[in-house]
Backbone:
C-alpha cells in the first residue's frame, strides 16, 4: 500500500512537470499571438482588438520580398539536403564498416551541434577563397546561402531517414534483388515507398530549418539576397514592434498547420502500412 | 543468361561508390575544407583590403615565404575581454544545460510513461515549438521581460513589487531564453531513450523490494545515460556559440563568445581575429563534440 502511494506521488510529480513545461513552451507564444491583434501602437498597453497590423504587414514590400527569397532558398535547400541526407543515411544504415563510411559519419553528424557562427564564418571564408582561386562565386547571394543551408540541413535529413531505414524490414529489399531488380530499381520501387513518410518529414524539417536560419545566412549572403530572418532581426534589434507580432503570428500559424498536416499524413500512411502487412500475414497464413 | 547474372554485380559497386561519393565530396568541400581555411586565416594578419587579410604565402625573387602570425591567438589570451567572454559562455552553457536537464527529464519521463496514443500527441507538442522560428520564440520573451513588459505589469498590479524588476538585458534573461529555446532538444533524445527502457526491469527491481526512488537512482537513471549525454550535448554545444539570444535578451554585461565573434567580423571587419576566436571555440568544444558524435553514430548505424 505504502509502495503504491509513493509511486503515485512520483508519477504525479513528473506529470506536473510535463504540463508546467508545456505551459512554459506555449504561453509566451500565445501571448505574442494575442498581442498581434492589439490596436495600440504601444506594444505593452492593450488598446482593443484590431487587425490593422496585418494590413500594414501586407503593404511592407521589404518583408514580402524577403519572404519570397526565403521560401525559394528553403525549397531548393530542402530538396538538395534530401538528396544528400538520404544518400548519407543509406551509407550509414546499409554499408559495411569502412574508412569512407567512418569519415562520412564524422562529417554528417557534426553540423547537428556545431555553433552557427562557426559554420557561417567558415563557409564565407571558403566562398571568398573560391572566388579568388576559380572566379566563382562572383557575388554572394541566393546560391551561396543555398549551398550553406543544404550542407547543414542534410545532417538532419540523414538522422531522420537513417532511423527509418534501420527499422525497415530488409527482407523485401533482398527479395526484390533476388527477383532480378537492379539496386537502383529496388531502391526506388521498394525502399522509397516504405521510407516515404521519413523523406517527407526530413524535407519539411530541412525546409523549416532553412527558413529559420539567421546566423549562417547573414554570413553567406550578399546585398542582393536578404532573407526573412535577416529583416526580422534588424527590426527586432530596435525593440518590440506590433508589425513583427503580426508576422510572428502568421509564421506560428503556418508552421503549426504544416506540422499538424504532415503529422496526420504520416500517421495515416503508417496505419495503412500496418493494416496491409496484417492482411498480407493473414493471406499467407493458410498457405 | 550471362548478361543477366553479370548486371547486378557490375552495377552494385558503381552505385555504392556514387552513394558514398556524392555526399562525401559535398561535405568535404563545404564542411571540412572551410575549417582549414578558418585555421589559415586565423594565422594571417589583418589588412585594409578586400578581403581584409594578408596572404600567408608570398613569392618574391624565387623565394617562397610563409608567414604565420600568432598575434591573433596571443591577443585572445592577452585581452581580458576575450577570456571572460569564453568563461562566461561556458558558464552560461553549463547552467542552462543543467536547467534544461532538470526541467526536461521529468517531462520526458512522464511522456514515456503515457499511453501510446498520448505519446504521439505529446511528442508533437514538444516538437512543434522547435519547428517554429527560433528568432520569433526569443522575440516573444522581449515583450514579456522588458521593464514595461507583461510580467512586470502583472507583478505591479498584484502589488508584489513597487517598481519594475530589471529582467531584460541581464544574464537572467539570457538563461530564460536559452532554456526556452533549447528545451525541446533536451526532451526529445531523453524521451527516445526512456521509452525504449524495458518496464520489466523496473518491475523486477520493485519485485525485489526496491523503493521507487531508489529504483529510479539505481536502474532508470543509469540506463538513460545515453539520452542524458545526447540531450546535454545538443544543448551545451550550440549554446556556447549562441549569438541571437545574448544579442536580443542580454545586456552589455552578458558577454558571450558568439556575440563577440559576430562583432569582430561584422563591426570591426577583423577577419583574422574572428577566425582565431572560432578556432579556440572549436578546441574548447572538441570533447563535447566527440562525446555527442559517439552517441550519434551509434544511433545512426544499425546495431541489431
Residues:
Amino acid at each position: 500500500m505504502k509502495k503504491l502511494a509513493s509511486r503515485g506521488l512520483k508519477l504525479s510529480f513528473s506529470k506536473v512537470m510535463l504540463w508546467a513545461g508545456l505551459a512554459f513552451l506555449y504561453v509566451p507564444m500565445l501571448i505574442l499571438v494575442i498581442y498581434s491583434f492589439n490596436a495600440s501602437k504601444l506594444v505593452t498597453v492593450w488598446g482593443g482588438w484590431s487587425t490593422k497590423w496585418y494590413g500594414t504587414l501586407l503593404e511592407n514590400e521589404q518583408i514580402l520580398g524577403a519572404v519570397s527569397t526565403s521560401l525559394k532558398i528553403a525549397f531548393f535547400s530542402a530538396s538538395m539536403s534530401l538528396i544528400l541526407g538520404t544518400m548519407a543515411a543509406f551509407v550509414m544504415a546499409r554499408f559495411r564498416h569502412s574508412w569512407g563510411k567512418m569519415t562520412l559519419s564524422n562529417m554528417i553528424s557534426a553540423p547537428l551541434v556545431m555553433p552557427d557562427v562557426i559554420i557561417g564564418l567558415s563557409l564565407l571564408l571558403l566562398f571568398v577563397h573560391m572566388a579568388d582561386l576559380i572566379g566563382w562565386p562572383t557575388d554572394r547571394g541566393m546560391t551561396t546561402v543555398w549551398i550553406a543551408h543544404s550542407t547543414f540541413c542534410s545532417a538532419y535529413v540523414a538522422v531522420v531517414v537513417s532511423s527509418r531505414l534501420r527499422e525497415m524490414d530488409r527482407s523485401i529489399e533482398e527479395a526484390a534483388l533476388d527477383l532480378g531488380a537492379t539496386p537502383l530499381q529496388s531502391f526506388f520501387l521498394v525502399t522509397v515507398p516504405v521510407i516515404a513518410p521519413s523523406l517527407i518529414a526530413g524535407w519539411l524539417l530541412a525546409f523549416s530549418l532553412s527558413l529559420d536560419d539567421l546566423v549562417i545566412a547573414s554570413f553567406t549572403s550578399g546585398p542582393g539576397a536578404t532573407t526573412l530572418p535577416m529583416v526580422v532581426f534588424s527590426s527586432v534589434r530596435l525593440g518590440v514592434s506590433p508589425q513583427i507580432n503580426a508576422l510572428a503570428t502568421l509564421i506560428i500559424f503556418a508552421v503549426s498547420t504544416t506540422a499538424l498536416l504532415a503529422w496526420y499524413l504520416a500517421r495515416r500512411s503508417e496505419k495503412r502500412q500496418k493494416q496491409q502487412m496484417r492482411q498480407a500475414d493473414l493471406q499467407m497464413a493458410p498457405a | 543468361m550471362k548478361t543477366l547474372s553479370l548486371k547486378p554485380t557490375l552495377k552494385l559497386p558503381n552505385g555504392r561508390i556514387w552513394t558514398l561519393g556524392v555526399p562525401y565530396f559535398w561535405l568535404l568541400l563545404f564542411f571540412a575544407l572551410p575549417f582549414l581555411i578558418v585555421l589559415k586565416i586565423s594565422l594571417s594578419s589583418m589588412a585594409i583590403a578586400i578581403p581584409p587579410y594578408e596572404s600567408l604565402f608570398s613569392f618574391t625573387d624565387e623565394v617562397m615565404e610563409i608567414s604565420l602570425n600568432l598575434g591573433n591567438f596571443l591577443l585572445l589570451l592577452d585581452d581580458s575581454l576575450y577570456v571572460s567572454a569564453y568563461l562566461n559562455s561556458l558558464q552560461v552553457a553549463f547552467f542552462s544545460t543543467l536547467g534544461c536537464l532538470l526541467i526536461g527529464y521529468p517531462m520526458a519521463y512522464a511522456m514515456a510513461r503515457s499511453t501510446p496514443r498520448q505519446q504521439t500527441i505529446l511528442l508533437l507538442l514538444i516538437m512543434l515549438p522547435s519547428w517554429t522560428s527560433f528568432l520569433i520564440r526569443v522575440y516573444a520573451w522581449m515583450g514579456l521581460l522588458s521593464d514595461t513588459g507583461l510580467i512586470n505589469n502583472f507583478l505591479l498590479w498584484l502589488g508584489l513589487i513597487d517598481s519594475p524588476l530589471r529582467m531584460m538585458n541581464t544574464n537572467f534573461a539570457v538563461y530564460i531564453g536559452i532554456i526556452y529555446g533549447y528545451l525541446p532538444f533536451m526532451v526529445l533524445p531523453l524521451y527516445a531513450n526512456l521509452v525504449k527502457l524495458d518496464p520489466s526491469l523496473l518491475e523486477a527491481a520493485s519485485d525485489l523490494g526496491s523503493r521507487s526512488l531508489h529504483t529510479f537512482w539505481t536502474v532508470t537513471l543509469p540506463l538513460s545515460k545515453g539520452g542524458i549525454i545526447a540531450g546535454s550535448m545538443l544543448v551545451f554545444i550550440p549554446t556556447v556559440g549562441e549569438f541571437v539570444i545574448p544579442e536580443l535578451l542580454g545586456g552589455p554585461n552578458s558577454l558571450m563568445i558568439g556575440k563577440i565573434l559576430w562583432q569582430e567580423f561584422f563591426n570591426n571587419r577583423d577577419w583574422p581575429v574572428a577566425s582565431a576566436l572560432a578556432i579556440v571555440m572549436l578546441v574548447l568544444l572538441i570533447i563535447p563534440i566527440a562525446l555527442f558524435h559517439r552517441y550519434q553514430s551509434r544511433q545512426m548505424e544499425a546495431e541489431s
